[in-house]
Amino acid sequence: MSTSLHFRAIEHLGTRIVSGKLPTGHVMLAEHLEDELKVSRSVVREAVRVLQSLGLVETIKRVGIRVLPAHRWNPFDPMVIRWRLAGEGRGAQLRSLAELRFAVEPAAAELAAENAPGTLRSELVEISLAMREAGRAGDMATFLELDIRFHALVLSGSGNEMFANLIGQVTETLTGRTVHGLMPEHPKEAALQWHVEVAQAISDGDGDKAREASSSIMRETIADLSPGWAGQPRVFVPVERR
């Protein structure tokens, strides 16, 4: 089976479901998808299997492939995040991600100051200084690459494997902001300095300063992005009684 065909089928269906073009409850038939996508049954089957694993669809015997509501989707999967960022639900997705990061990253920075190995601390300082240089120069491609590495190291350096497993989500967030034109041509000087302060505090083993500088980054991020999610609905996940 061609990997490119498989990927194209997943992307085509995933983006249409997340955008609402295929609404909740919509039923698709495998044979129709074969014709629409011009792929084999095995490609359709594998694409549907992936979408099922993401909570986007379910297969019902003698009915077809049914689209599931948003509260059933896996909100932590990088593909779902990327699809939401590309559609009309971008603001709501950015809000959810910003709130998640605000809850996690300052705590991760504090833990990294306490637990990170020496090599990681040194690399963080180097990256923060390179970020400041790239940001001041307006080299946003380099800045994005460094920014992703910076936040990945903070999460990893916490020593908490659950925090570290959010690296993919943070990567999609930072990439999406750049791809969709939500970053300024030059990052704010204060934000550049806060990254340096986070790195230096982690290097020095100062958890309180690391948490505060990281919180400053996230407060500024939320202030910058919040106009884009005004009026966007939230997703309320039903809680089942046990």
From TrEMBL:
Domain named HTH gntR-type: which ranges? 3-70
Enumerate the InterPro entries for this protein.
GntR_C (IPR011711), TF_FadR/GntR_C (IPR008920), Tscrpt_reg_HTH_GntR (IPR000524), WH-like_DNA-bd_sf (IPR036388), WH_DNA-bd_sf (IPR036390)
State the Gene Ontology terms under molecular function. Answer: DNA binding; DNA-binding transcription factor activity
Entry keyword annotation includes Transcription regulation: yes
SMART domains for this protein:
FCD, HTH_GNTR
- PROSITE patterns cross-referenced by the UniProt entry: HTH_GNTR
Give the keywords, sorted: DNA-binding, Transcription, Transcription regulation
The reply to whether DNA-binding figures as a keyword in the UniProt entry is: yes
Protein name according to UniProt: FadR family transcriptional regulator
Species of origin reads: Arthrobacter terricola
